[in-house]
């Protein structure tokens, strides 16, 4: 069972979904005897591909956002004097280690 299928995200599958709707409109026996199963498999395959593509785009966008946030964090650490300006390209784990090292030095 699918949620509402005819959405803008699934526009590439519109033709196959319409074919499935038409098959289901043939009546109960068509569905009961499996006459719509091949079309249903095609709908599932198409929706899976759409979902995969949507997830890929979301992952890429999340990576870009994460990269931007880490750059902002690195700039803030430089302004606070936690990290030397030459180390602005380090990862957060290196910065955390540096912060832990400065905390130990203060003790």
Task: List descriptors.
107 residues, mainly alpha
Commentary on this structure:
The protein has 107 residues and is mainly alpha-helical. It has one domain (8-100). 71% of the residues lie in helices and 0% in strands. It is built from 4 helices and no strands. It has helices at residues 14-25, 28-32, 37-80, 92-106. Helix 1 packs antiparallel against helix 3. The protein starts with 13 loop residues before the first helix and ends with a helix. It is found in: Mitochondrion inner membrane. InterPro entries: Cyt_c_biogenesis_Cmc1-like. Pfam families: Cmc1.
Helix fraction, binned, reads over 70%
Rg (CA only): 26 Å
E-strand count = 0
Overall mean confidence score, pLDDT: 81
Stretches where pLDDT falls below 50 for ≥5 residues?
none
SS summary, helix count: 4
Element pattern in H and E: HHHH
What's the SSE blueprint?
Blueprint: H1 14-25, H2 28-32, H3 37-80, H4 92-106
Task: Describe, in short, the structure shown.
By secondary structure, the protein is mainly alpha-helical.
